[in-house]
Amino acid sequence: MVALTYDRPDPGVLIRYNEAKVARGIAECLLAGNMPLGKEDLSPQQRMAYLRNRCSLNANIQLPCLHAILGFHPLDGRLRSGEFAELAYRYMDLIGFGRQPFLLYSHWDTYHPHLHLVTTNIEPDGNQIYTHRLALRSSIPAAQRIESEFGLVRARSVKAARNSKGTGIVAYSTGKRPASNYMAEAISFLRRNYRFSCLTGWNALLGLYGIRAYQATGDPSKLRYYLTDHNGRPISRGLSERKIFSGPRMALGADLPGYSSGVTPLRVRTVLAQTCSSGDPSPERLSRALSAQGAEAVSVWSAVGDREIVVIDHIWRQAVPASMLGLEAKQADLLERAIRKEGRSAEKGQLQEGNSVLNHRKIQRIYI
């Protein structure tokens, strides 16, 4: 987490800036803290008037407004709005502004999550809260303490490795170890580290390792797993989760380990929107933009037999179907063309032997 603070003369300028982004659908007012009413009951004009009135209590103060920007690592984007609000209250308390009124805005127009906090250094009795060298005295120590308390990625000690799955899973090689061991290793990693909201998203993740899940005949809540060749054809007998794991099986639905209704398309949608808004984008340019942000788009056969595009975000570690992205026609067409251009399919998971991809004609059917 990084916290930047600035002294400003007028909160109105900052509030108008943030509210303009809210109107464009790329920001949200999360909180009206320490105000007589909540954000739902205050119009933007009333929020502005309240802070301006507080700033006017001491005419001798030239810079009565404090503007703080709280920036987070992309992995911290999984925090919910309520957690960001709790974090903001904690930050205000740690820098000595715990009783001051403030507005909190979340912006979605960058690749990393960040918050804008607008408050005042004028207390109800007209006294001023001392803000000289606030960053060194309070803000930076507060950010470091919040990193520890909320389990955030530490700004000073971690360098994100973008576009890297970092699984440490040894690629499958025929005859060198049981296929069930390889499948268990890959499935366990994905269940622990990635989020998805449907079987199509789950298969997009599995396809990275040349595995596909099918709903069992007679019981759609049960899954069977197969190794596939680079054309998506099964090359092994199906394994149930009971044979792969000793623990409870994974059932489709809200109790599915790794399943999350909280999969969010915000970051991926930002990448697509910014790529499409800059000139005349090409499929190659979109692929490069996704790759630069640690994401990739794949095509997957859905449960009903249709092809569906899924974007896998390795930074936020989630699989997002294109149907969840709410894309404009131009963006959807560009994503479709990017998939066709690269021939990228989740069913083309590479089964590697050493450093070379196995030729599917030479792969004999594997019996487990």
UniProtKB/TrEMBL annotation:
Domain of life: Bacteria
Occurrences of domain MobA/VirD2-like nuclease (ranges): 42-152
Annotated Pfam families: Relaxase (PF03432)
UniProt cross-references to InterPro entries, sorted A to Z: Endonuclease_MobA/VirD2
Protein name, entry field: Relaxase/mobilization nuclease domain-containing protein
